[in-house]
Batch of 4 targets.
Target 1
Amino acid sequence: MKNKTFLFFAAVMFLFTVDSCQHHYPVSLVEADSLVYSNPKAALQKLDSLSLCLDTTQKADVMYLRLLKMTAKDKLYMSFGTLDSVQSLVGYYEDNGDKQLLPRAYYMLGRMFVESEDVPSALAAYRKVLAQLEQHEDIRLRGITNAQLGEMFGRQEILSLALSFYKEAFLCDSLLADEVGMLYDMRDMGTSFDYLGMKDSANVCFRKALTKAREVKDDDMEHELLLHLANSYLDVNADSVAKYMFLVNDFELLDRCEEGCIKGAYLQMISRDKAADSVFTDILPQTTGALKLEILRRLVGLSCELESYEKAKKYVKAYLRLSDSLKIVGAKEQEAKGLALYDYTHQMERGNVLEIQNKNKQIALLIAAICLILLLLVLFAYWELSIVKKLRLQNRIKEWRLGALLKTKKEQNAEIYEQVGLASYVEAGNHLSQEGWLSLEESVENHYPGFKEKLYSCSKLSEHEFRVCLLIKAKVPTSKIALLTSRASSAISTTKQRLYKKLTSEQGSAEDLDKLLAILWLDEIGVFEMRIQMRMPF
């Protein structure tokens, strides 16, 4: 009898213990939780009212309320706390709180590290989220965590990893039938494909996302996607650019700078150089970073096309200053990128993020980090040397300045024509004599000192190739070059293409060579050598 009584009480105590481990939250808190992702504003209002009447003796309820408030504020792009407050929340759930809520606490910790730009710590927190979700599955949290990881690796330009995370996020949102989430995932996948040079895949994602944006009536996203599609066709298909830009104009402009850059590039594609120059000049003061760099690059080419060489000089100098500053910033950020990536892959192999307690493994990680830092320092030193080399080149270029910059290009070309008598050869339909070639070379050298030296410093040219360059410098059309050299016009075009590749190590058209040689007279700013060093299109 005594044994039966003991077993009865033991069973009761066991059931009590099990029930106590499964805390029953107030219905109002659970209802607020259901609104956190779909309607964070309403959820926050509900949580604020609950704060006034919640039983503060129930710590589990209080911590749950704090977690929900942080989540709702984060969704509304509001400040959701301090690092200490988030870490205390994580500590509570790690020690004795509801383990099903622990991955959500880790997610908020990751968001806090993202806000403070602590990339390695943010990655570690998100990896903890995914590790915990293997025990407590939460498809929505898995989706948004993968989206966050995708964004972080995308910012660090580790695009293949970013794309894999975006794909995982899309899968999760598809299982939830989350139309808005799927829309953003397709946008992000398209952006990753675009940066990876996979234009066809990018456009498929952008078009699908555009259809989805119109279905959910998200005008802002529709505007953004139209800009993405227009941008993807720049320098490829002017009609497609015009098509998507026309649709963009139906919306209130959200980013005048990005739209302006695309408009300017489109105008440049259709040879409306003055209009393009006006657009770029208007938005230049409002831009920063890579977008400003792109606009300056295009303005250099446009200024040369419009023969505004003083402007070209100004833009080149601005381009070099900004390019150098961005490279310096990039070098400083590279350490964090490398450490974060190493930390991530290291933890992926072991399946337990940032919880490795073995001292030998910690030492190995530290040694690897130190080696990585040393490698980055070596690379940075190499980059510094390349900068010095570039500056030396620019100083050499300054020594090649023309004796008289007051004469216009057209006047100089007219003088060359007159001195050499090119017009008489063309009218007579004769090729240029040996004496004529010598006279042409001398005249070009007088007007453009160092012309031959600059050409041969880039590549060894044949006699025919050098003569073609002389005629191009004298602004002789392709058809007349063919006549003077006793060649077909098609052969001259082929020669021009070959010459462009020789001088720049890049593929280009006959027109590209004409533009290249046309700016060789800008000795003060070294446009030609800068183009060779920086691979900047004209």
Target 2
Amino acid sequence: MMRSMYSAVSGLKTHQTKMDVIGNNIANVNTVAFKSSSVTFSDLLYQTTSNASGANATTGVGGVNAKQIGLGATTASTKVNITSSGAAETTGDGLDIRLSDANTTNFFIVNNGSENLFTRSGSFYIDGSGNLCMTSTGYNVMGWQVDPTTGEIQKDTVSALRVMKQENLTSAPEATTNGTVSGILDKNDSDVTSEAGKIMTLNFYDDLGYQYTAKFAIRAVNKDQCEYTVELASLLDSNGTDIIANFTDAQKASLFGNQTTSNSTYTLPTSATGLSSGDCYYDTGASTYNIVLSNGTTAALTPDNATNPTSFTYTDENGAQQTVTPQDVFGFTALEWQNIQNSATTNVTGTMNGATYTIASPTVNYTLKFNTADGTFDYVNMSGQSKATLNLSSSGLFTNGNFKDISIDFSTCLNQNNGGKSTIGADSGDLDGTTGKGKKLGAMIGLSVDTSGKIYGTYDNGNTTLLGQIATAQFANASGLEKVGDNCYTTTLNSGDFDGIGVDISADGSKMTTGELEMSNVDLSTEFTQMIITQRGFQANSRVITTSDTLLEELVNLKR
């Protein structure tokens, strides 16, 4: 009778233990990555009142089983349901990561400052030192670093992932090495036929990330034959200063284009006959330049230089001294006069003797030719050539040494009717839009994690840089891990040790999913069912104790 009471007490204890586990499961129903536990019972050592006997062939009596009385129940084990994953909860946070593996046997590796622990809770953030940490505890997330030589992940002993180091906050600039000209060049565009030409700009970077602008002028030479010229008009720095303004034609030719010379011949009238006020002529008899005054008389023009004058003076009808330019006298165009004035740098030479004079005007440009049949690109500079080079580096004209030569591809531009409006323009980068585009110094604007746990920094110059990789740990017996609180586990003799290196989660086809968290795998319906069963068991054991007490009371009463 006492045995029954003690057995019932052990039953109460075991059912209380199971209720404790159920209560803990329900309490953590919304705990991220919590793994539910279950309890199993076992019976206690039995008291044998009679041993078993075998059959007796002589007497013909059969064997008798042993007589045993159990001494109650005890907790056999508390098993963690670790291989069952919880539901996925979408958070939208790029640093919330869910381990998507078939058997839920992968664990994040975190460090509390003294030892490595393991968790499936992937709620992370970047702390003030730039480390990737657990949101709830601040433990450092462990992984592999980037080899500074190769730029690839070095899968060595795991260490804290400091993804926002000072050197990672910026991305190095890149000098532009390619450009592409595209769009339509319309021969009826007034800009194309003008003296200034159709201006096309190309923005580019040097090695330090400073931006420059190259301006090209496209002019019609023989538009009916689809022939044009491309000239480097200016090269502006970030302050708008033209850094080639004082370059000679030879220097400009070494930068872009070929230098050619064209001669222009002009003839002045030799008498005042038929001329109007302000018109000039050359008196061959007197060998003088003259101007017609408003009263119909003429006045001699006195040049400041006999061969290449920069001004002429004369006395007008009122006796006042006046000055005119060679442009006024000879009828130069503005561009021709500019060339003459800049003869020291442009190597313009001219002969101005008498009524006939010649100006030799050097130009620096490339020939741009299109197919006359369909307006498609033919060549630039020479037959079979589709690219022209802006020789910023190889020319040796710049002392900073930060430029790269830029190869400019003209092959996609067209010479077709577009209603008199040209859309031709230049962009940095090759035909693919990215190669050789060049970039400014980039500032980090975000972090991202791919499915294999690789962490990338993104920058405002378009660069993406690999910063590290989150490692995971796998165990032969994940259920053997020991819970230590804060959603973390530690190794035991039965779980197997951690090798200090970890594994790439993608090695077995598993992955990491960002913007999601793994929730608890607690099944409330199961827990409530178990709670009812446990309650009934507890009540039954209580009744055994009550009944045993009643029987003992009856025995005491019999003694009376």
Target 3
Amino acid sequence: MKILMTIRHKLRGRRGIASVLLAALALPAAHAADEPDFTVVEASIADMQAAMASGRTTSEAIVREYLERIDRYEPKLHATLATNPDALAQARALDQERAEGKVRGPLHGIPIALKDNIHTTDMPTTGGALAFKDYVPPYEATLVSRLESAGAIILAKTTLTELANWVATGMPNSYNAVRGYGYNPYDPRPDPRAGFNDGRAVLDTGGSSSGIGTAANFWAASVGTETSGSIQIPSNNTRLAAIKPTVGRVSRHGIIPITADQDTAGPMAKFVADAARLLAAMEGADSEDPATGNCPALPAGLAESLSADSLKGARIGVPRAFFYEAVTPPGAESPVGGLSPAEAEVMARAMAILQAQGAVIVDRADLPSIVAKDPDDNQLLFANCYDLPQGKGGDANCSVILKYGMKRDFNRWLDSLGDTAPVESLTALREFNLAHRDQNAIRYDQAELDISDEMDVEQDKARWRADRDKDIRLSRTEGIDAALKAHELDALLIPSWRSENILNKAGYPAVIVPFAEVPSELDPPLPEGFDPQPMPFGVTFIGTACSEPRLIELAYAFEQASDGRRPPAAFP
């Protein structure tokens, strides 16, 4: 097994190897007697395609192995809300297509999973909410139709933080009323600390998208969604590669929303090229989503043409203020942001690798809105309204984008379900939750739903518009774009997921690369004898609107040079 994984790593790092593999997709060959048995564990999509093309395995066999892994490890991880009962039949049909010389592309016969706020019509789409338990929507998400047309098999629906983490402050990541708590495969233990011992994971899974099953090799890759960090954070926390796209590159039609201002779907995978393959299949204009069609399509065959040399001459900016070093916003009493010594050491290593690969590190490349002295121009002082104190009358100093968008767009989504909708409005959902409190419908209450339902879509539109304009100004014009332009940068280098707030307000893309790990620093500390496991710690490349192709190139080259992906040892 170790020998096989070494071979795979060498193949992924060799320039042009993927294009050779794709050229052979439709060419069945005899199984070489001296080749080891194929396994899905840590296999890339190119590995799977090469094995199917050579006759070493089939899509059906790949699906079977993944289902066996789900059956074996799901009780410890709680990664899955549903599996596709037709997956094996779909795999056999795709194998037959291959035998007849038809291969749809790099996703042909590849099993993937979807966050369970993405519509499927052969499995429930619950959002993790008790009100939607067992609910099957009347139409399929656009991205699902596109993935299936590309030959992908939707194997499962992943667990998630309920309604993409817009229910209650204090709700643990990867908790929902339908499945309970999800666990990080890098430390799948419940938290033993007083006040935290409600069943939640001791090692945070991060965000509302689940990276659990992808990290544990339950499927080849998955599709998450992000409004404010839910692709970036779980990918970093479960040692995955991922792409948070520009808002509008991927259709949101058929996704349970928070706000159309920031929502997007994006791929989560073990390797950058695999994430790029999913994104290429998902993207494109859709008449059902007016935000789409603003970005040019990814270059054809981008994932197959990626080069380990793409960092040569690239200009990478290091925005020290807040992201690396703590800063005190104007009028504030204490500093915010910054890295621990261990995290700073990891980022120093990342920069050394980038320089060794020929990149130019521009240090420092601070964002003007992060260091602005005028409070009205400082992005750090304009966070989102989240909790009950930031409801009506208490929201003067926070952005209403999320709570207003949830009222507007959630009700629109419910309307799209027609007579099949389990509840007719956000108000009705809140009432259902209260009526089913004894069934754990709202174990952590529903403060975020409450402050959203206070909003009036018409009367509060002017406030939303003003906050949206300010968010765009501080995140784009005086934020990311200003730093990129001032220093003529290809990208900014961000530690872990630390850009999630400003990046999502801008609607800009990011590519996450697994890299290292750092000591878990829990407050209060774990009891004596309960040794904390380290937290995975990736790096993130961010850029301006529609810059995914360049970010993917840079991230891939860094991935090849750093070799940071490590599977969870407890789930071989």
Target 4
Amino acid sequence: MTNNLRPGERLDDLQLGGLELIQNPSKFCFGVDAVFLSDFAKVKPGETVLDMGTGNGIIPVLLAGKTKGKHFTGLEIQAETAEMARRSVAHNHLEDRISIVTGDIKEAAERFKPAFFDVITTNPPYMLADHGLRNPDDSKAIARHEVLCTLDDILRESMRLLQDKGRFYMIHRPFRLTEILTKMHEYKIEPKRIQFIHPYIDKEPTMVLVEGMRGAKPRVTIEPPIIMYAKDGTLLQKNGNNSEKTERLKDNGNCSWEMKMAGTLYLVATPIGNLEDMTFRAIRTLKEVDLIAAEDTRNSIKLLNHFEIQTPMTSYHEYNKFDKGRKLVEKLEEGLDIAVITDAGTPGISDPGEELVKMCYETGIRVTSVPGPAACVTALTMSGLPTRRFAFEAFLPTDKKEREEVLKEMAAETRTIVMYEAPHRLVKTLKLLSERLGDRKVTVCRELTKRHETAFQSTLEESVAYYEANAPKGECVIVIAGRSREEIRQEEKERWEDMSIEDHMEYYISQGLDRKEAMKKVAKDRGVQKFIITWRSKNHKKYVLRVAWVKKERTA
């Protein structure tokens, strides 16, 4: 075999009958998903196969080595990648069995004869074009995102190119399975076989294999799942029952079996003051993950040292949440498990962890929470105010216009309100709340779970006077009583009393209510039990209507 490598390329041993593949790590190397797809696809002797989006030609090369298919065609839109695939085909002397064609998937049916192929395989981009994080490298972005083709494009062209009862094989992400099956049915490629791939036996599946058949009747079989690894990291045999073990795959420079199983993001709650509030699960998780993203590594190192946690840390905070978030998602896509911790409490609550969670969901990465302390809930439960319904407002916005909008909403809020505030701004905020919300009941909690914990219950006006005389220290949580419903009802009643009965009726009639329902509403609004309404409509017809008995609404 000749070696025709170019700068940046390498030659990888596929460990299959001496086959080798040219790859360029800076562009995009094939992953274990390609290996699974080549194992899943059934190619009979003498059959013709089309691989859509073939990349560096890994699927045709593997299928040529594993099956007795007559001919394999790889379709790839990126000219440079297609040319590299051709060199791999020539390197393995497979020119008589494999053809690499440069072209667009969306135009595949125009390039090849209709109903020509027995089998079509595809390892398509997993992410929608506008979802998740786009790699700045075009070749990698095209491989991961539906930039140049969509699921609809692939299925539409496959429908046209497959023979009747021809088979379609695809590997994809489970979070799009419903969409995949629905669209396959729409394009007359009936799902016949499904198999999930799990990184570990106790982990959710990260990939799914799907077989469809052109023009078949509805009937699908769920295959036993594939479990990639045992707990000790040993690679399990891909036979469903995973009873046997094989040697762990290692990248020794001769093979690039890149692990594409995405990791998991763990949101780990940490103590808000008392270290004894740390849970056993939180400690174990922080020890087991590959990386900890901490709001302030200088603060978090004290926690880690206390519990003898030696996992590497990286900073993730408000000022780097977007750039660093993208890097963390890339690490998760590479298979790393990452824990996020804040300085105190639960990540994602008034915390940049919220953005990272959003990024993970957009990218299809699993997110789970390790519950524990949260200052807002702790303060609420010890406030002495109603806890059945509450609203969390975190910190008031710094923008004046936005702050006024939030205060307006809070003034009408009937639920108990929980918010955070720094000690040096506490008095100013309490004054503002008193002006906008009125003199409501309030509990100010400070230094929660710490030695000098306090919960001062009073009214907003009284709390202003108290903290002007007693300078607050420590982080504060303000718990405010919601607006009284009785007060709201009284205001509504006063508003209706300023309106004539005729106008009151017209108000409800204009909303589409009939006269009977409008009368009931009027009676209820005015707090009366029974009365006679003389009402003249707009066409000057005079009606004398008796309102049905309406009970007075029970006060809260």
